[in-house]
Amino acid sequence: MTSDPQPRRSDATRAAILSAARERFASDGYERATIRAIAADAHIDPAMVIRYYGSKEKLFAAAAEFDLRLPDPTTMPQDEIGARVVAHFIQRWENDDTLMALLRAGVTNDGAAERLRTVFASQVAPAVAAIAPDRVATRAGLIASQMLGLALTRYILRLPPVVAMSQDDVVRWVGATVQSYLIDS
Predict the structure, then answer these.
(1) What is the C-alpha separation between 153 and 164, in angstroms, rounded?
(2) First to last CA, the chain
(3) Would you give the distance in Å from CA 34 to the centre of its chain?
(4) Phi and psi for 33 in degrees, rounded to 5?
(5) Cα separation of 163 and 159, whole Å?
(6) Residues with Cβ < 8 Å from 174, sequence gap 6 or more?
(7) How far is CA 79 from CA 9, 74, 88, 170, 185, in A?
(8) What is the DSSP string of 8-24?
(9) pLDDT digits (tens, 9 = 90+) for 135-160
(10) What pLDDT does residue 86 have?
(11) How far apart are CA 128 and CA 162, in angstroms?
(12) d(CA 102, CA 63)
């Protein structure tokens, strides 16, 4: 008779800490989030956070692991790639606090900014290279500027005209710009 192994208590504690950290970094940003607040959110002693992660910076690095889950652009109609990429990013921004936490922290913390650069360089550039093999870094950088700028103005600064736009309008307007970075030039 075999049974499924029970998750170890330490795994549950780590998961609770990461979940609390992601929420706290997303809501407060890196600088204002504290180990004590994260521990309180996870219903554990602050010493446990340090035991598992060592420091706030290491906890942030673990909490900021992020897969953009970009769709394969080679499977899309060429004239829809920009819009589909923007629609994908909007869904990611609205459904995952980790990227929001990374963006908030990246504005004020060099380590977080580097992590954000790494996420975009390692995930956006290969997708761009698959459909536009010339000037990949430039194209990927411009796409990142649109996606990060959109997220900053819509979800963090909450610029009223951008917040008021429907998702369809954002996809149409920003998608055309992203499309030009991928196909034109």
Answers:
(1) 11
(2) 64
(3) 20
(4) -70, 135
(5) 6
(6) 86, 146, 150
(7) 50, 12, 16, 17, 15
(8) PHHHHHHHHHHHHHHHH
(9) 999 999 999 999 999 999 999 899 99
(10) 97
(11) 26
(12) 9
Judged by phi (left if over 0) then psi (alpha if -120 to 50, else beta), residue 135 lies in left
Distance CA 116, CA 18 (A): 18
Query: Other C-beta atoms within 10 Å of 133: how many?
Result: 9
Residue with tokens 């900021």: 64
Q: Under a CB-based contact definition with an 8 Å cutoff, are residues 181 and 88 in contact?
A: no
Nearest to 72 by CA among 144, 134, 127, 139: 127
Contact assessment for residue 119 and residue 68, using Cβ atoms and an 8 Å cutoff: yes
Report whether 86 contacts 178 (CB < 8 A).
yes
Determine contact, residues 112/59, Cβ cutoff 8 Å.
Answer: no
Q: What is the pTM of this model?
A: 0.74
Write out pLDDT tens, residues 97-135.
777 777 877 887 787 788 888 888 899 999 999 999 999
Instruction: Let me know: does 131 contact 182? Beta carbons within 8 Å.
Output: yes
Query: Helices 97-108 & 9-32, crossing angle to 10 degrees?
Result: 40
Domains and CATH numbers, the chain: 9-63 (1.10.10.60), 73-182 (1.10.357)
As a whole number, the mean pLDDT across the chain is 88
